[in-house]
Amino acid sequence: PPENESFWSNLFGKYLLVTNTVGSGLLVGVGDSIAQYSDRLRDKKSFDYTRSRNMVITGLLIGPVQHGFYSLLDRIFVGHTRRVNLQKLLADQLIMSPTYIGMFFFITCLLDGLSIKECHAILSKTFIYTWALDCCFFAALQYLVFLYLTAVYRVVFINLVNCLYIVMLSYIKYSPKNSGK
Fold first, then answer.
1. CB 66 within 8 A of CB 100
2. 3-state class of 104 per DSSP?
3. What is the rounded CA–CA span in Å between residue 24 and residue 21?
4. Cβ proximity of 2 and 134 under 8 Å
5. Do 105 and 126 form a contact (C-beta atoms < 8 A)?
6. Which whole-number Å values give the CA distances from 75 to 10, 78, 170, in the listed order?
7. Which residue among 71, 138, 175, 181 has the highest number of C-beta atoms inside a 10 angstrom radius?
8. What is the distance, to the nearest Å, from the Cα of residue 61 to the centroid of all Cα atoms in its chain?
9. In sequence order, what are the residues at sequence separation of 6 or more whose Cβ sits closer than 8 angstroms to the Cβ of residue 20?
10. How many angstroms separate the CA atoms of 106 and 95, rounded?
11. What is the pLDDT at residue 94?
12. What span, in angstroms and rounded, lies between the C-alpha atoms of 22 and 175?
């Protein structure tokens, strides 16, 4: 029906920033819920709703940054040649990836009630490992995304895949040796 076409064209057109922001928040929350479910099976922990709320807020704050970054990337590097896609990939891994990791750890730590100093200590302890994991996990995927997906669907797709990555980030952030508590 035509009303469905209008809904989807608005969702991935006129309201793309909102779609990307809300999608990021929800999918970060889903990723954390999966991580917590895994923790519950292993350690018999109860579900931490505050933690999931904090993760959703983190995703909501990171979503607009991702949207803006990838929009800017498409304006700076125009086209779909191998060279352009490699330039986008390099910018993604050298700029967006460290930014995402830094924002993720600082926002979640602050929402968890930690001080700036404690947040910095956790980020310092986990950054290199997390960035290496990010480069291994996303580099090839991002190349394919830049090659085959239009900008409209890029953040949504990456956020879907990001659910698995968030399970790993959540584990890193909330493992007893990194929790700061």
1. yes
2. helix
3. 5
4. no
5. yes
6. 21, 6, 32
7. 138
8. 10
9. 63, 64, 66, 67, 155, 156, 159
10. 17
11. 96
12. 27
- CB-count burial class (<10 Å; 0-12, 13-18, 19+) for 98: middle
Please state, in angstroms and rounded to a whole number, the distance separating the CA atoms of residues 70 and 66: 6
Tokens of 11: 């969702």
Helices 97-111 and 49-76: crossing angle in degrees, nearest 10, is 160
Question: 180: which DSSP letter?
Answer: -
DSSP state letters, 26-87: HHHHHHHHHHHHHHHHHH-PPP-HHHHHHHHHHHHHHHHHHHHHHHHHHHHS-S-SHHHHHH
Torsion of CA 105, 107, 113, 114, to 10 degrees: 40
Q: Which residue has the tokens 């910095």?
A: 120
pLDDT tens for the 181 residues of the chain, in order: 556 666 555 555 566 788 888 888 988 899 888 888 877 767 777 889 999 999 999 999 999 998 899 889 989 999 888 899 899 999 999 999 999 999 999 999 999 999 999 999 999 999 999 999 889 888 888 888 888 887 777 767 877 888 888 888 888 888 766 655 5
Q: The tokens of 128 are what?
A: 């290199």
